[in-house]
Amino acid sequence: MSHFSGVNNIIPPRRPCFSSPEALSRLRDALKQTSTGSCKIVKDNDTVIKEFNELVNMNADELTEWLGSDESAGSGWSKDDGSGETIGHESGRKIIEILKKNPKKDPQEYEQEDVDHMRKVVAYCKRHLAQEEKAKQDTNSKSYKSLKNWGHDAQKA
After folding, report:
1. Which residues form the domain of 65?
2. pLDDT of residue 15 exceeding 50
3. Which of 12, 29, 101, 110 shows the greatest Cβ crowding within 10 Å of its Cβ?
4. What is the pTM of this model?
5. Is 20 exposed, middle or buried, given 0-12, 13-18 or 19+ CB atoms closer than 10 A?
């Protein structure tokens, strides 16, 4: 039995909410089972790559320079490993690796590990840009600095 067999149970037989069997099939393909047994819709890799390349508006050199600053080191949540490095700072280092590995941003050149991190970057940036208007206006705010650690300079956008 398919993990997604319950999807058919939520569609009323007389009023389908999908325009075609293909649309339903695409939804089934997009659903992923989580450890709790619930389902969530996951963006495909092409969408993640496109959004990453739109949101990360700093190049590798700019991000390297930023991550070397005191401002960068002091913004965000510290990792649990006792290193003192923030989660965003670590993410920024991974972003630099991704940018340097594939400077032409060829979607075929990314490894799955790259796309997995890109997915985190997209989720973080979108969530914080939607919630925190301050990041776009105040370059001294923690929001602005934290987003920069994740490769997004709100002043450039």
Report:
1. 45-149
2. no
3. 110
4. 0.71
5. exposed
